[in-house]
Amino acid sequence: MIKIEKNLSLLFICAAAVFLYAIHRRIGIELPDDAAFFLRYADNAAQGHFWVWNIGEAPVWGASAPFFPLLLVPLITLGVPSVTSIVWASALLSAASLAAMAVLIARRFGFLSAIAFVVLGALDTGTMFYAGTGLETPLTFALISFALFALLERRGEVAIGIAAGLLAIHKMDLIPVGGLLVLAYSWQTRRMPIRSAVLALVIACLWYGFAWWYFGAPVPNSFLTKALHQNDFVNIIDWRWFGSTVYYRFDHWPLSLLALLGLVRLRKGFAPLLLLMLGLLAVHLAAYTVKHPFEPYDWYCMPSLLVLLILASAGVGFIGELLGARGNKRLLVGAVSVLLLLAVIVRYEIDFQRADTLSRQNWLRYVEHDRAEAGRWVDENTPASFRLVTAWGNPAYFSRRYVYDLSFLNRRYEPGDLIEKYRPEILIFQNSEPSTPLTPDQYGPNYTPVRIFDSAFGNGEGNYFFTVYARKDVLPQIRNVTLPLATSCVAEQFCQRYQPLKVSEASATRPVSLPANTVASTTCHIDEINGSAFPSNEKFAAKQSVNLSGWALNGSEKSLPITLYVKLSGAAGTFYAPARSLYARPDVPAALGLPESLKDAGFKAKLDLSAMPAGDYDVAMLVGSKTETQECAQKTLHLSR
User: Fold this and answer.
1) Which part of the chain has CATH 2.60.40.1930?
2) Is pLDDT at 549 greater than 80 in this prediction?
C-alpha cells in the first residue's frame, strides 16, 4: 500500500510538471479578450468594491463564472501584478486539477490509462490553451475533478452535495451536471441521497438568492444578453460548431475513436460514472446545438473535451489490457503497446498541434495586442476623468476608465445610441469590414480618430484593427496625437489587401508610381488565368474580365512588392492595370530559399480589357521600387472581339 501511494504521489508530481510545461508552451503575450472581463472584476474586488464593473455604480453580475475572479483577489491584494495573477493562478490550478485527475484514473483504470490521459491532454492545444489563459476553464477542471473524485472514491453524501452545488454555481450550463452527479451517486448506492440533494439545493439557492438580492437578477447579466439580445448578430458559426469542435475538429477524431473503446472498457462496474460523463456530453451537445453562440466561444467546449479525454485514456488502457492479456510478460507487452500507440498519435498530431498553437498565439500577439494597446494608450494619454465606450474586455480593462460596455455583457441592455446619449470623451472600436486603416469608420461629426492599432492587419491576421476616437472638443486635453495617423499601410494597395478584389480597367497611360528605369527580372510568375493554368486557356473575348494570379517579389531588395502592375503590350499599344499583392504564398520563400517573412508573395488581378483592341499581347508583371521598375515577361494572351 505504501509503495502504491508513493507511485501515485510520483505520478501526481510528474503529471503536474508535464501539464504545467504544456500550458506554458501555449501562453501568449496577451490575454484573450473575455479574460480581461474577469480581471476587471478581480481588480475592483481587490480594491474592496466586490463585484462591480464601474466603481461607484450598482453591482452587475457580468462574468458568468462568479467564483473565478474571486480566486485572484488574494494574489492581487498581496501585490502580484493582475495579469500575472490570472495567468499563473490559471496554470497552477489547471495543472493540479488535471494531475489529480490522472491519479484518480490510475487508481480506477490503471497506470496505463493515467499515462494516456497525461499525454493526450498535454498534446491537445485547445485544452492547454484555455487551461492557462485566464478564462474560467481552470476552475471548471477543478470542480469536475472534485465531482469525479467524490463519486469514484465514494466520499459520501456530503461531498457529493458540495460538488453538485458548486457545479451549479460555477456556470449555468453545469447545473444539469450537478443533478446528474446526484443521480449517479444514487445509482451507485442504490438509494436516494437526500442529504446530497438538499445540500446541493441549499448551496445553489444561497448563491442565486444572494445574486437576486445583490445584483437585482438571479442569473448573470451576460446570460440574459446572450439569450435575449444577440439573436440579430451576424452568426459566424452554425449549429454544427459545438459537436465538430469537441469530436473531430482540431484533430479530435482520434480521441473520439478511443473514447468508444473507453465506453466498452467502462461498461461493467462503472455505470454511475458513465451516466455522469455521457449525461454531460449529451446535455452540452444538445444545449449548444439548439442555442449556439454567434461566434466560437471554444472554451464552452472544455467540460465535454475533458470527459472525452478521460474516456479516450480508458480506451488506450483497454487496448493495453487486451494486448497484454496472454503470456508471461503480459504487463510488459501491454505497456509497450500503449507507449507505441501514444507515440504514433503524438507523431500524427504534433505538426497540427504546433500550427494550432502558433495560430492562437499569433491571435494574442497581434489582434489582442492591438485591443490591449488601445486601452493602454487611453490610460497613458487621457485624463482619468474621461469616459469610454467600447465592446471588448482588453480595452475596457487596460484603459482603467469608466466604461460603457457596448457588448452589454457587463451592463444591462439599453436600446438606442449610447454615444449620442452619454457623449463619452473616448471611443475604442474594431473596424467594420469595408474600412481600412487609411479609411477608418467615422462616428458622426463630433468624433475623430486619434490613434490606430493595426499590427494584426499588417501581419496577415486579417482585416482587424482598432481605432481610438476622441470627442473633438477634448482634443487639447489628450497627449501624443500625431496627424496624419500612423498605420501599417505603406501603400493604398497594401491597405486594400482584405477588401474584395475590384475589376480594374486597362489603361494606355503608364502609372506615375512606376520609375522610368526598367530592368529585367525573374522574381515573379503568373500561375493562373481565370482559375486555370495560363497556357491552357489563353484566348479571350474582350468583353470577358480576366483574373490573373501568381507571385512576385521585389528582386533587387528581396522584399514584398508594394507597387505592382500588369503590363499588356502588343501591336495595338501598351496597357497597364493594377494588381494586388500580399496574398499568402508560403511555397515561394520555401522554394527559393528566402526568409519566411516573404510568405505573402502572392498577387491577384481582375482586369477589364474591353477598351483594348483585338490582337496578341505579351503579359508581364511590373514591380516598382524606389529607383527602378522590374519587369517579368511571362505569357501571351490572344484577345478577340
Assistant:
1) 501-640
2) yes
Rounded Cα distance, 188 and 193, in Å: 10
The number of beta carbons lying within 10 Å of the beta carbon of residue 500 is 8
Q: Extract the C-alpha cell encoding 574.
A: 501598351
Provide the 3-class DSSP secondary structure of residue 245. helix
| Contact by Cβ (8 Å): 599, 500 | no
Residue 544: pLDDT over 60: yes
pLDDT at 330: 64
CB atoms within 10 A of CB 505: 12
d(CA 613, CA 571): 9
Beta carbons within 8 Å of 404's beta carbon, 6+ residues apart: 387, 388, 389, 390, 411, 418, 422, 424
Percentage of the chain modeled with pLDDT above 70: 97
**636 three-class SS:** strand
**pTM assigned to the model:** 0.88
Q: CA 597 → CA 137, 594, 600, distances in Å?
A: 35, 8, 8
Q: In Å, what is the CA distance from 56 to each residue of 29, 52, 393?
A: 31, 8, 19
- Residue pair 609/540 in contact by the 8 Å Cβ criterion: yes
CB-facing half-sphere around the CA of 458: CA atoms within 13 A: 17
- Cell numbers describing residue 337: 503497446
Residue 72 dihedral angles phi and psi, to the nearest 5°: -85, -20
Residue 429: pLDDT band (50, 70, 90) is very high
pLDDT at residue 542, rounded to an integer? 60
Q: C-alpha grid cell for residue 599?
A: 510568405
Output the DSSP codes for 543-572: TSEEEEEEEE-BTTTTB--SEEEEEEEETT
Contact present, 623 and 636 (Cβ < 8 Å): no
Per residue in 43-95, pLDDT (tens digit) is 999 998 888 999 999 998 888 898 999 899 999 999 999 999 999 999 999 99
- Residues, the chain, total? 641
State how far the alpha carbon of 265 is from the alpha carbons of 40, 148, 509, 589, 602, in Å. Answer: 45, 17, 75, 50, 52
Chain mean position to CA 429: 19
- Span 501-640: which CATH code? 2.60.40.1930
Q: What's the grid cell of residue 69?
A: 475572479
Cell of 164: 453538485
Q: Rounded to whole angstroms, how far apart are CA atoms 83 and 274?
A: 38
Distance CA 8, CA 14 (A): 10
For residue 511 the three cell numbers come to 502609372
pLDDT at 3 over 80: no
pLDDT tens by residue, 251-305: 999 999 999 999 999 998 899 999 999 999 999 999 999 988 888 999 999 999 9
CA 640 to chain CA centroid, Å, is 50
* Residue showing cell 439545493: 201
